């Protein structure tokens, strides 16, 4: 065990070993700061990489870096594992070829073009039925039945952000948009306004697409009574594959762009008819906020469904948003605790690189 630990911690490469600039930067971010000579290139300044870190670098650059989003779902173009060692079949840019050989030899892995399981790109039966107007109601009835009720308790805080309101100090500015303007968001429909909010202020900024040029205000709100919400962030327990999973269908629905709004609006209307005060739903910006990777798998199996601590895994990569039906301030369901101006003083981006040819 001591020998195995020593071998695991052994430096094999460093960030200065690589020619590709993106790969070098990613290696520097992942590597260990240690001013010893690299056994490969003899640099003392490069961040040092063990076998485990090299595997993480390969996944981040070639798997994460080639992931393509579809209408629903996403999948990488390239995968890598130890079973393909010595049998890589990708066609990288010329400046990456030596770097790939270094990664292959150091981590004993190979790179290959990935044929994803079709559920990863939206071939999920309940999701397909939601897209079919003749079958949509049947699945929405399941959603009403299988997802739990969660209570937003009286006095529990959440936030609503507005950009350039006409009267920033007027509480009415933070209610749902007027009925005449409803029908542009993910869950509101014509004649059916919705107040959107979150307990995560950073997500509020993302959702409103706020920039440093905007005049931004944040209202802190709280319910005046317990509110009954349909919790669509709940991880369902199901004895089915990803292809038949209602949980996967709803997960993909809320990570999809505006083409999915017709479906989510139908769910919101059904929840209103069922007597709910609103919905808790996953923010579209959950992954960019948490640093998660869309639809992670191990050998084609969804980590959301098969992770040993799947509930903690799902919770770690989900930011909850609130959608309260109607006009909650006007209808005296919520109250404003305070209103503040929000000044953005620093904006930063965290990302990684990927190949341009493969």
From TrEMBL:
Organism: Pseudomonas carnis
Domain RES: 173-336
InterPro entries from the UniProt entry: RES_dom (IPR014914)
Superkingdom classification of source: Bacteria
Protein name: RES family NAD+ phosphorylase
């Amino acid at each position: 065990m001591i020998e195995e630990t020593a071998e695991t911690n052994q430096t094999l490469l460093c960030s200065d070993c690589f020619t590709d600039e993106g790969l070098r930067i990613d290696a520097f971010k992942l590597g260990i700061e240690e001013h010893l000579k690299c056994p490969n290139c003899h640099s003392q300044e490069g961040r040092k990489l063990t076998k485990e870190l090299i595997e993480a670098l390969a996944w981040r650059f070639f798997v994460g870096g080639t992931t393509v989003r579809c209408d629903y779902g996403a999948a990488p173009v390239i995968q890598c594992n130890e079973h393909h060692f010595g049998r890589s079949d990708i066609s990288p840019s010329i400046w990456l070829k030596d770097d790939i050989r270094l990664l292959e030899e150091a981590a004993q892995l190979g790179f290959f073009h990935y044929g994803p399981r079709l559920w990863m790109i939206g071939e999920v039966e309940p999701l397909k039925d939601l897209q079919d107007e003749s079958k949509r109601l049947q699945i929405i009835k399941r959603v009403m039945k299988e997802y739990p009720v969660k209570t937003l308790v009286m006095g529990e805080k959440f936030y609503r952000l507005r950009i350039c309101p006409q009267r920033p100090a007027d509480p009415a500015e933070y209610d749902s948009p007027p009925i005449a303007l409803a029908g542009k968001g993910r869950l509101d429909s014509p004649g059916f306004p919705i107040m959107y909010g979150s307990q995560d202020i950073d997500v509020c900024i993302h959702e409103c697409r706020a920039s440093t040029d905007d005049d931004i205000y944040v209202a802190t709100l709280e319910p005046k009574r317990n509110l009954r919400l349909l919790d669509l962030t709940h991880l369902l327990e199901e004895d089915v594959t990803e292809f038949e999973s209602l949980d996967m269908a709803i997960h993909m629905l809320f990570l999809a762009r505006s083409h999915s709004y017709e479906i989510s609006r139908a769910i919101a209307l059904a929840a209103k008819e069922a007597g709910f005060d609103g919905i808790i739903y996953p923010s579209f910006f959950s992954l960019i906020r948490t640093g998660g990777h869309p639809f992670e798998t191990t050998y084609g199996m969804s980590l959301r469904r098969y992770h040993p601590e799947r509930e903690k895994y799902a919770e770690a990569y989900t930011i909850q948003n609130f959608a309260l039906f109607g006009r909650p301030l006007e209808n005296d369901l919520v109250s404003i605790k305070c209103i503040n101006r929000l000044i953005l003083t620093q904006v930063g981006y965290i990302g990684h690189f990927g190949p341009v040819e493969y």
